[in-house]
Specification:
globular, five-stranded antiparallel sheet, alpha+beta, two-stranded antiparallel sheet, single chain, 2 helices, OB fold (Dihydrolipoamide Acetyltransferase, E2P)
Amino acid sequence: MDPRTRYDDPLEVFESFADQVRSSVMTAMPVRVIKDADGHTVSIQPTVKAVFRKEDGSLQQVDYPPITDAPIQFSGGGGVTSTHPVKQDDEGIALFMARSMDAWHQQGGTQAQIDARVADLSDAVY
């Protein structure tokens, strides 16, 4: 339990809740390539640990699950794309999309959102 929630102060309770919500939103994190695929997607492993609170109140650090089939983002523009080989154990950064990208990843172009996921680990781009 956050010590601020022990006090009868609604503002502190709200701040504690807001901190909890912010800590669960994924934006970007360092990762390591655990399996290179076809040059367009990779499997990646976050290189930071998640912190979970156990029932007894103690904290436990655990590995995030691997992220599979993450598209590789290469720089490009004007009809030219700069690529390079991506190999196992390369380190980089994963960016997490604000909305589900499943339909776009499968079909390209502009697609309707097929579910309500927000900033989820499964919507990562390496």
